[in-house]
Design brief:
Strand order of the largest sheet: 1-2-3-4-6-8
Protein name: Delta(3,5)-Delta(2,4)-dienoyl-CoA isomerase
Mean pLDDT: 85
Oligomer: single chain
Largest sheet: 6 strands, mixed
Number of strands: 9
Shape: globular
CATH topology of one domain: 2-enoyl-CoA Hydratase, Chain A, domain 1
Structural class: alpha/beta
GO cellular component, one term: mitochondrion
Pfam families: ECH_1
CATH superfamily of one domain: 2-enoyl-CoA Hydratase, Chain A, domain 1
Organism: Gaeumannomyces tritici (strain R3-111a-1)
Distance between the termini: 56 Å
Radius of gyration: 25 Å
Helix content: 40-55%
Number of helices: 12
CATH architecture of one domain: Alpha-Beta Complex
InterPro entries: ClpP/crotonase-like_dom_sf (IPR029045), Ech1-like (IPR045002), Enoyl-CoA_hydra/iso (IPR001753), Enoyl-CoA_hydra_C (IPR014748)
Order of helices and strands: HEEEHEEHHEEHEEHHHHHHH
Length: 341
């Protein structure tokens, strides 16, 4: 008798569990359908009804006042806009600037009030004309005879420090959208290759200029550009000739996001980038930061290695409450809010 009762209870529990699981599956499907419906109706940055020419309202981010070579503002919730601030010198970089750039992006990476970053140059003439060769060379040329091996070690350390500063953009946990406008030479390509997305004003003039000053580009272009565009022939063309190319060519090879290559003015390009950044910043920061990390890992590893890395990453990330928040917002037809990360 007891055995029959136990079997009956076990079957009842099994049926209950199945019903609960079925209900949860239905709930998840409804949630995702609702989210998909709302996403289709949302006016994104490329929607014809969206006004990209509206100048964003900027709020100064006082926590970044120490970075004197850059202007850091917030045009939208959880969005930071970084401007290279040396317009009288075409935003060219000297050593103090690139060291500050690395420290700035390391700070942004850990800032819970930032979920996406827009990077542009101050003024209308240039994003950056590259390295201020005269200022940078001071102190590197020995005034007396130095052992070549020791001088080589000093130079290697200097290059490594420079590379690390620029790589901080790529390593930033927050997506970075680069606005290319005006003159974009040399270091401009190094920097923009580190960004996650690139948009372009119609006046942008781009070039990998290093061979014209007698050096091979050593800060990242030769390592990253082939991975960004996928055409080694085109990469060798622009790197070996140092020729200038424009927005149409940049978009055609995939260097600039599709449809983001002919903004009439710098202001339009910045507004478009800010719209993209705001769209990203409205998503779950757990999901966004995880997506960037997993995509960057996949770029540098095999599919098998990337799948294993994703398993480990999501074993922790899937425990977030952001999934519930996103699903409920879809069911309740409201915009989701997510805790700071």
């Amino acid at each position: 008798m007891n055995e029959k009762l136990f079997i009956w209870q076990f079957k009842a529990v099994s049926v209950s569990v199945r019903l609960v699981l079925s209900f949860l599956c239905i709930l998840f499907r409804i949630g995702f359908l609702a989210l998909g419906f709302r996403t289709c109706k949302t006016k994104g940055p490329n929607n014809s009804n969206n006004n990209n020419t509206t100048t964003p309202k900027y709020t100064t981010m006082e926590a970044y006042a120490e970075f004197t070579h850059f202007i850091v503002t917030s045009p939208s919730p959880f969005v930071a806009h970084v401007e290279i601030n040396r317009p009288n010198k075409l935003n060219s970089f000297h050593e103090a600037m690139w060291l500050q750039l690395g420290a700035l992006f390391n700070r942004l990476s850990a800032d819970p009030d930032v979920r996406a970053v827009v990077l542009s140059g101050a003024g209308n003439r240039a994003f950056t004309s590259g390295l201020d060769v005269k200022a940078t060379s001071e102190g590197l040329i020995p005034q007396e005879v130095v052992d070549p091996a020791r001088q080589a070690v000093k130079m290697r350390r200097h290059i490594a420090e420079f590379q690390a500063s620029i790589s901080a953009i790529e390593k930033c946990e927050k997506p970075v959208i680069c606005v290319l406008h005006g003159i974009c030479y040399g270091l401009a390509i190094d920097i923009s290759c580190c960004a996650d997305m690139r948009v372009c004003a119609s006046d942008a003039r781009l070039a990998v200029k290093e061979v014209d000053i007698g050096i091979a580009a050593d800060i990242g272009t030769l390592s990253r550009l082939p991975r960004v565009v996928g055409s080694l022939s085109w990469v060798k063309d622009v790197c070996l000739t140092a020729r200038v190319f424009g927005p149409d060519e940049a978009e055609a090879v995939g260097f600039v996001s599709p449809g983001q290559h002919r903004h009439a003015t710098k202001a339009d390009a910045v507004a478009a980038a800010t719209g993209l950044a705001a769209l990203v910043a409205a998503k779950s920061p757990v999901a966004v930061q995880g997506t960037k990390e997993l995509l960057n890992h996949a770029r540098d590893h095999t599919v098998e290695d990337s799948l294993k890395y994703t398993q480990v990453w999501n074993a922790g990330a899937l425990q977030t409450g952001d999934v519930k928040a996103a699903l409920l917002s879809g069911l309740q037809k409201r915009k989701p809010t997510f805790e700071k990360l």
